[in-house]
Amino acid sequence: DGAGNTSSCTAIVTVEDNLGACFTDPCMFDTEPPMVMCNDITVNIDPATGNATIDPTMVAVWEDNCEIMGVELDNDLFDCTMLGANMVTVTVWDGMGNTSSCTANVTVLDPIGVCAPNCNAPTGVAHFSNSMQRVTFTWDPDLNADKYQIRWRPLGAVILEMLWVMITSQSSH
User: Fold this and answer.
1) What's the mean pLDDT when you consider all of the chain?
2) Do 135 and 128 touch, CB atoms closer than 8 A?
3) What is the pLDDT of residues 8-40, one digit of tens each?
4) Which distant-in-sequence residues (6+ apart) come within 8 Å of 77 by Cβ?
5) Which residues pair with 165 in a beta bridge?
6) Which of 30, 34, 44, 81 is 20 to 30 Å from 121 by CA-CA measure?
7) How many CB atoms lie within 10 A of CB 92?
8) CA-wise closest residue to 88 among 75, 107, 101
């Protein structure tokens, strides 16, 4: 006090950890969402399955200041009806339920003609070899000219197989 009198005492302070973590876990009160970044990719239809399959690591990278608890991709399977660009969303969440999402374009291609043409496709299958010089098939140019083209691929040493291939972009006739 102002007269110079002093006094002292001793006190015991007891701290109880009712939460069980004593605030040493920085993730206990985490409010920071994970970071996720997406990239566009291109995939090809698999000739064996007629599908293309992706997983989240193919279109996104992520990290968090705490543990990532889950990653979800809203579409991981693409078929012949999905040729071209398809938007997918990747969602990531951490142990406290904080979430982040991003989107990517998955471009699905059919470079070898796996996908069956639609009902306007030409009919018939033709093979060409040294012993056969003529091929007959059905073709309606009004229905097919802007959608399909004929390609040949080797089927053996001297045999070629004719394929109907869907045209993915317009070309002049």
Assistant:
1) 75
2) yes
3) 888 887 777 666 555 567 777 889 999 999 999
4) 51, 52, 53
5) 149
6) 44
7) 24
8) 75
